[in-house]
Amino acid sequence: MSISRPIDSIAESDLVALIDGAIPESTTLDFKRVTYGKADADKREFLADISAFANTLGGDLIIGLDEAGGVATAIVPFTGNADNESRRLEDMARTGLEPRLTSLRIRAVPVSGGAVFVIRVPRSFSAPHRVIAQNSNRFFARGGTQKYEPNVDQLRHLFLDTPVILDRIRAFHADRLVKITAGETPASLTRIGKLVLHVVPVPSFIDGRMADLVTRVAGGTHSPVPLDIVNFGTNWKVNLDGYLSHAVMSPGQTGGAYAQFFRNGAIEGVGALRSDDSVRSRFITRDLTNVVVSRTRQYLDVLKAYDLGTPVYVFLAICNATDVVYRYVDGSGMGWNETLPLGREIIALPETYIDDLAVDVIDVMKPALTALWNAFGFIGCERYNDVAKWKAGNPYSLFW
pLDDT tens digits for 153-163? Predict the structure, then answer.
């Protein structure tokens, strides 16, 4: 096991708990008494250790814990400049592996007498990673408490795992779009066009780390909010799939919105587009881009709060899209025009790959939003004509 807490919240008490509980090293946990030296052999050893985690199941490498027989026994604090040492380790990791590990995290945990380094290495979905420092050109994986060099067959599996995982995520996404279009949604929505946003953290989707999602969300401070263009009130409930936030609608109101937090870590936001009748629905630039950007940002923040890891895939789509139109200001700026309806029930836009949860959502969502505008015959989304103005103020607020 590794430390089951977000790395930013790990404290000395968590390290003491490893000792008091006689926690042993494992496939996902390794203890080092002192930090790695500056010799070439020491650098290669560090890179071998972290790449072995990344190429297997991920895990925590803890520098500053003594062990006996693989069991944590005592804290041995680093007494030098912890910030400088963290940067040195980060620099070695950044330059010594191919491909680069993009989501490795290092935290210098303050303890009595100094610091202990917790290096969180996520399972990589661009594996296998090769140690290239000093022309090493070696691959490593982890089995039990030891690292080893995989043979040819094992390497073949490492190279083939990532495409299979992505196929599973795409199949999940496609299945959800079909169900949403058919009206099989966890909250009641009208049968008009619906904007659909999926944010899927790959590590959680694969290893089931959010199996206790209901308990964690109910006891936490972060939950996804509905993909709500109209701005209804919100309520929540637990369901078979996980945790649901949904719009509270008054009698006679149409539309609806919800956010389903699945047990596999995926977040599904769905919101009905505006409608003037019971058939045709429409959107305008400002409403749609505001809600896409603000909710994508909020969903990424939720994933970060529960340490669900990266990479993340973001999918944007419109379901029940046959009669959806785009309403835009005409050339004179004095009135509105509408496009012809889309004429297709499902519009699935290009997926977005994110390997840093602090990403600028406006920038990374441009290809998907451009493709949506292309579907209506426009070269691109007009919000990107003056992206600096768009980012002014608070770009992640729903209304600005």
Answer: 877 777 777 77
Q: Are residues 120 and 195 in the same domain?
A: no
Question: Among 368, 365, 374, which residue's Cα sits nearest to residue 396?
Answer: 365
Indicate the burial class of 330 (C-beta count within 10 angstroms; 0-12, 13-18, 19 or more): exposed
263 touches 242 (CB < 8 A): yes
Strand order in the sheet with 324-329: 274-275, 281-283, 324-329, 336-338
Q: Report yes or no on 62 lying in a domain.
A: yes
Nearest to 29 by CA among 49, 9, 11: 49
What H or E segment, with its residue span, contains residue 265?
A: none
Answering whether pTM is above 0.90, one says: no
Task: List the domain range (segments joined by +) for residue 363.
Answer: 160-391
Give the pairing of strands 130-131 and 138-139: antiparallel
CA 129/CA 321 separation, integer angstroms:
42
Asked if 372 and 228 sit in the same domain, the reply is yes
